[in-house]
Amino acid sequence: MFQRQPFLLSAVLVLASSSFAQPRVALQASALAGTWDGTYEPPGVVGGDPLSLLVSSVEGERVHGTLVLPSGALEFDGQFAGSTLRFEAQLDGNAATLELGLRDGKLVGLGRSGPSEWSFRLAHAGSEVLAREHAPRVVELTSERPATYTLGGLDTEVALALDELMRTVAEKNGVVGLSVACVVGEKLVDVRSLGWEDVYANEPASGETRYRWASISKPLTATTALRLVEQGVLNLDADVRALVPEFPQKSIDGKPVKITPGLILCHQSGITHYEGATRTLREYAEPHPFDELVHGLDLFQSAPLRFAPGSQFSYSTHAWTLLGLCLERAGKKPYAQLVKELVLEPLGMRATEPDYVSSSIPHRTHGYERDAAQRLVETFDDDVAWKLPGGGWTSTVGDLARFGAGLFGSQVLSDEAKRRAWSEQRLPDGKGTGMGLGFFLATLSGERMVSHSGGQRKASTYLAVLPERGLAVAAMSNTDGAPMQEIAFGALRLLLAAQR
To answer: CA–CA separation, 87 vs 90, rounded Å?
Structure first.
């Protein structure tokens, strides 16, 4: 998970090299005067946070003004040349270089700090310097959190203990809203919520609240992939480029290497995660280009591999975008349609869908997080469509629990498929990774557990399943960083104690 990194309040603009003649440079520098509004996108974020560039004076190549970010405003003195602004700034304590090119009345470019990369897009709002403020709203949790119950199938003692656990975690960690669903005997029996779906509207969290799955989307994709394998249309050992030729051939030490769907499923593909991803900046004709999964390749496809595929374990969400495209090509249908037909419909998951910004989704939760000053603030919206297979689904907590319950029977996965999915994958030296195919493997109170967590803007989630006990817990929150694992494990221990 990538936490949004705020800019520290210091920046310098310096000269970029140029072959243009002085009159051309001066003319373009003058065009910078006024107000520029746009967004910047941290690693792993599309849609981004608001920012403004207020250029108050231009003298030759020298530019003076104010940069306005959510974390505050700062003055700068710098230079412009060759149609390029070059910023040197402190980004979360690290020196970063930002280069913005002036093209067709827009400033577009990238910022780099070590292995991390940010993108910037600004449009000229006018030749006058206008007042700008981008600080997110601060949340003050001064009233008691409301509690709602959709199903109440737990024993009284267990139910009271779970309520206490949820309230304790929420109060200790400043959680705005959360919901928990319990599966007992392979059936969804209990759904309860605490806090707010939208704190400003005083809308309580409930069984209808739609939370982001975040990275729990990966087990959903893995289940779909394994169904396609059993249908004989997907080969986990095939070269991904046989299905997705748009993805460039990768090499290690000058030698071409092979990436397979199976290696992506167990996080051994070598494809980078958010840090190290290299963006390909493009202009798209569509208003929501990442609703087409293939455009998600632009976020990482030009980055080199971190290691030879199959030689190491390294978690990568970007790789799952590529995997989703493999499923599309093998199944000859859009990825989301395959998931719906092969998993959602068989399990009765009617409240689960892609978290597209282009869609109107009822009860879609607002998001909250801690800023650099540890204040609880409202999260800026972003677009997760580009990483739908690895972190872009949304649903009620009940539907997430239905997915967990569906892993017990044979509605979506056969016993052989589950054995394959829940077998620990190993490295060439024999070392175990704690990962199956899209599922993390561990034990809880002596019981075998398959699970996955999720964390991104607007979401902290956890799904844990005890296959031999017929127990599962789904815990979802709209507060980034909320310890949903603590709630899921605590709830499972309560259910286990009651069962034993």
So the answer is: 10
